[in-house]
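hi support,

uploading two proteins for the ticket. first:
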Amino acid sequence: MTKLGLLLSWWKRNLETVHLPTGMAFLFNGHYGEDTLSYDSLGGSDLEIAARLREACLKADFCFYLANLERTVYGDCEVDDSHDCDRPYDRSFEDPGDFHEITHQDGSAAFFTRIVCLDGSEVAQKTEFNENLLIQTDAFREGDPDREEYQGPSEDDHKRSYYDPSDCNHGATTTHYYQRTVGLVYVFIYFLPQYFFLRSLFEFDWPSY
């Protein structure tokens, strides 16, 4: 048995005693189209990894799905004097330029835009996802977002910074959008319908240490 197979077997045996999640997600390198997402649409290293995961899941009695993930991160940033301050604008890879660095993160969120079986048949749409269930740690630390929405300070913000120069960046915010494809691996539980399989993956309550 491969190391991956041994890991899945251990995971299944210790699911309840070690308080493990019923499923996790592997972040692929690429992002594949919503309408064409399937096992056959994968390429390169993503296809190689998916093939190993699929084989291991079949042998260990796990389920394996594909999903497109959208993650948003939002917070404060420095004021961009090259744009009208109080007018929001979008920047993407079609609009080249540097993205605004988030200087103070206020929060983040992630959800699956679409979940499919390996043959491309749809399982679910627009489902919230707990980022702690990503297999890779700090999966989004490197790499630019796919898109951002920048919002400059309002007129009131400018007045505040006039009287308090140390607050010159007050009111400038940005939201970064990341779009990725993931492989979903989770334990097959015979007596639960598919809907509850997915809920157990997305709503797992991680213990606090």
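and the second one:
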Amino acid sequence: MKTIQKLQDAPKPFALKDTYVPAVEAARAAADDQGSEPSAEDNDDEIPVPPKGRKRKNLDLAPDGKPWDYAGVRSAFLKQQRDEKGLKFQAAKLLWDQSDTKRNYLKDVSLQELKRRKFVPKGATTNPWAD
């Protein structure tokens, strides 16, 4: 019962426009008197927009310029090995890790890209699949 009484005594919410609309209207009226729109420099309450960072080049391309499809190449290899040789998934994965297909796919990828995609650790200095 006490909770219901507390809820009835709670302050009523106010309309959001009651807080900022009068200030905006006053600024517009003052600007109309001067004959120009209020500028962003006049409004110190605005949050400055941070500058955008450098645009990254399209890193979703394989070294040969085709779209990056490592997962597709890997799954096709695994499926082929499992179908042709009747291997289990773990055995096919071991073959993939040692295969020339994987080496050929990753040999021309830059070290930066390999680090970004977590093929090599951050401290690596060379591409382990490069010739």
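thanks. also noticed: The two ends are 80 Å apart (CA to CA).
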